[in-house]
Amino acid sequence: QGLKDVIGKDMLIGVALNKWQSSGGVPEATAIVRKHFNSVVAENCMKSENLQPREGKFYFDAADSLVAFARDNNQTLTGHCLVWHSQVPRWFFKDKAGRTVTRDVLVGRMRRHIKKVVGHFKGKVRGWDVVNEAIEDDGSFRKSPFYSIIGEDFIEIAFRAAHEADPGAELYYNDYSLSNPAKRDAVCRLVRRLKSKGVRIDAVGMQSHNGLDYPDLSAYEASIDSFAACGVKVMVTELDLNVLPSPKGFSGARIEQDFEYHKRLNPYPEALPDSIYRKFEQRYLELFSIYRRHRHQMSRITLWGISDRDSWLNDFPVHGRTNYSLFFDRNYAEKPVVSKIIELWEGR
Ligand code: G3I
């Protein structure tokens, strides 16, 4: 049996797919999705730079294949993401002369993008990450162009536009480091403010790009309770575990020049030692026991990738590392952690 056969009784269990996987081109990936998951999300192909690279020119082919993949393999589909300061095309904030656009122009562009995209996928996407990463770790608004040009109500405008375009779709706010109390409180304030104005918001997405020793698990668990107390569901939207050290002050250039430093960042180029694998497994089991305990407050857990071969963590913060962050190794072989999570969820 797969993860979905046990976790699926309580909530969705999903995975992010890259465009090679979601076009059906990777048979190992398709088999894993069918066995273990009931929900998929695009790792990149539904982001604005891919959907609308030039103003008014929309390219839906890759995302449409994902829709077909989800339909053919019986998967619920999440839309990721409508408004994000990253992976947004350059033209979005500039006029033809290269000047920063006015508030009215940016509101218009943002609303048009949302209306067109959400309208295109109407009835096919269960819910949207409407706004991604708008709050800083200290709880202030991120000084993104959306915030700086429009003001904090860009968030409300975005949620309203998404709802107008598909009143049946769930709407989510998604962010990272949400166990951080200042950030958690700011997101709670945001959720309450939206709700008090009658704006639809169904869930908060905790990205959960975790490591072996972060976040603090009691703070992480407290955040699940806090968001649920605001009257929304909690979703774990981008789960993975970085097993490599990320010392402060790294930079790609420095690493290429400094082999010793590189080795420190990438200490297990051949294979993950058993001792670290055990920590990795233990950490995932701790996380899933938290999710199980909070299953009534949660609606989804999504892994940010299928196999270690494809993880974004291989390229972050430097390109070409070997990370070991997911449930399937570089050859798509299942790690023992998967059956342990199934046992844990069944209460065995
Ligand atoms: O597809 C192009 C390819 O044509 C080109 O040759 C190559 C050259 O670098 O780039 C390829 O695009 C890359 C893309 O991933 C697909 O592999 C982009 O450079 C790269 O920036 C992009 O990274 C993605 C990242 O978001 C962008 O910020 C990661 O795959 C994706 O996993 C990551 O996901 C984000 C979530 O959306 C939001 N939360 C954080 C999370 C991790 O950063």
Description:
With about 350 residues, the protein is an alpha/beta fold. The chain contains 14 helices and nine strands. Strands 1-2-3-4-5-6-8-9 form an eight-stranded parallel barrel, surrounded by five helices. Strand 7 (about 210), helix 10 and strand 8 (about 235-240) form a beta-alpha-beta unit. Helix 9 runs parallel beside helix 10 (about 215-230). The mean pLDDT is about 95.
Helices and strands in order, then pairings?
Layout: H1 3-6, E1 12-17, H2 19-22, H3 27-36, E2 39-42, H4 48-51, H5 61-72, E3 76-83, H6 103-120, E4 127-132, H7 145-150, H8 154-165, E5 170-175, H9 181-196, E6 203-206, E7 209-211, H10 217-229, E8 233-242, H11 252-257, H12 259-265, H13 274-293, E9 298-303, H14 337-346
Parallel strand pairs: 1-2, 1-9, 2-3, 3-4, 4-5, 5-6, 6-8, 7-8, 8-9
Bound molecules: ligand G3I.
Keywords: Carbohydrate metabolism, Glycosidase, Hydrolase, Polysaccharide degradation, Signal
GO molecular function: endo-1,4-beta-xylanase activity
Family: Belongs to the glycosyl hydrolase 10 (cellulase F) family.
Summary tags:
single chain, 348 residues, alpha/beta, TIM Barrel, 8-stranded parallel barrel, 14 helices, 41% helix, 15% strand, binds ligand G3I, glycosidase, EC 3.2.1.8
The CATH superfamily turns out to be: Glycosidases
Q: How many beta-strand runs?
A: 9
Terminal CA distance reads 15 Å
Instruction: Classify the helix fraction into a percent range.
Output: 40-55%
Average of per-residue pLDDT values: 94
Domain count: 1
Strand coverage percent: 15-25%
Q: Architecture, CATH level 2?
A: Alpha-Beta Barrel
Order of helices and strands: HEHHEHHEHEHHEHEEHEHHHEH
Helix vs. strand class? alpha/beta
What ligand species are in this complex? Answer: ligand G3I
